[in-house]
Specification:
The chain is mainly alpha-helical and 207 residues long. It has 9 helices and no strands. 75% of the residues lie in helices and 0% in strands. α4 crosses α5, α6 runs antiparallel to α8 and α8 packs antiparallel against α9. It is globular and about 50 Å long.
Length: 207
């Protein structure tokens, strides 16, 4: 059973990696002048939407945290609305944190907010897919030795590596977005932390 779960988790991570790569390559065939560096705002939007959609689909297909209780339609709607509110609050929180770390408050607000959305996509959205809008479950999973499944262990590692990757990409420089290499460094630092360090740490922990 554990080996089957590891295979499913591996497939989910590989699909996420593949989706990020596709968001940097495929739009160029339909959008003249599209590049991750030159049109970074568009890429942030495309990447966030694609990864969000894939995470939701994987959650519906793989069902990593299937509850034995059946929910009514009204409960499902309430759960969905709570998830939307939590995700929006996460975007606002990350935006505020990024500003506190040096991003301008008014100038380049679009870049900063879209980066916060991307960071929320790799952290909060995955928590919502696996744990739902259950604050007690979040506290349990992110407390010491709180993970009770291989999916929750992966959630711990990918979330922490996403945040640390964003921080390591930002702390040496001001987030003024006035140089293209700053955009590239931040984005790829975060993505590499999620899908390299995070997956490596998960494999070491699960073996």
């Amino acid at each position: 059973m554990k080996e089957a779960e590891i295979r499913r988790l591996l497939a989910a991570n590989l699909l996420c990696v593949f989706s990020v790569i596709l968001t940097a390559v495929v739009p160029a065939f339909f959008w003249d002048g599209f590049t991750v560096l030159g049109t970074h705002l568009a890429w942030l939007c495309v990447c966030s939407v694609c990864v969000s959609t894939l995470n939701v689909i994987l959650h519906l297909v793989l069902k990593p945290n299937l509850s034995p209780k059946r929910s009514s339609f009204a409960q499902k709607i309430s759960r969905f609305l709570k998830c939307c509110i939590y995700f929006f609050m996460s975007c606002i929180l990350f935006h505020a944190i990024i500003v506190l770390y040096g991003a301008p408050l008014i100038e380049s607000v679009t870049e900063t907010f879209l980066f916060a959305v991307l960071l929320s996509t790799f952290t909060t959205l995955q928590c919502l897919c696996v744990l739902g809008p259950n604050i007690q479950a979040w506290i349990r999973v992110f407390s010491k030795n709180g993970a009770m499944s291989i999916w929750e262990s992966s959630l711990q590692i990918t979330t922490m590596c996403s945040i640390l990757g964003a921080w390591f990409g930002a702390f040496p420089i001001p987030l003024d977005w006035d140089r293209p290499w700053q955009v590239t460094k931040l984005i790829y630092s975060q993505l590499s932390s999620i899908y390299a360090d995070g997956f490596k740490g998960f494999v070491q922990k699960s073996v």
